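Take a specimen:
=====
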Amino acid sequence: MMIMAELKGEKVDISDYSKNQIDQAENSFLSWLEWHKGKELKPILIESPLVSETYNYGGTPDFYGDINNELVLGDYKTGGVWKEAYIQTCAYVHLLLENGHQCPVKIIILGIPRTADEKFQEVIYTSFETGWELFKHLKITYELLKQIK
C-alpha cells in the first residue's frame, strides 16, 4: 500500500492497521525505496483493473510504465517470488495488449521482504510466451474442473 501511494503521490492512511502490520509495511517500503534509488519511474498504470473480453479473465497489474526509459510491467510480491507470478504477469501482458497498450520490454517481479529475515528478490523476464501458454492451459483446466460435481 505504501509503494502504490508513493507512485500515485498519495498519503497513506495507516490508522486501521496494527503496529505489527505497519512495521512490516514500512520494512517493505524501505526495501522498495532502496531498489528504486537511481531509477526513473514513469507510471502509465498503477493498480488499474483490466479485463479480457476475448479470454474472459481480468487482473490488476501493480505497475505498468517506464523504468529508465524501458517499458516495464512490474509486480510486487511479499513472501517471495514463485513461478506462478511469471504466469500471472504474462497474463497481465495480454490484458495490456488487449486493452490497447504496448507490449512491455520486460517483466520485473520484486519479492519485497516484510521482515528482516526475508530477502529482497528481483526477477526479470523478457520472454512471455511460455507463461501465456501455461496461463491458457491452466484456465482451461480450471473451467473443466468447475464442471465436475
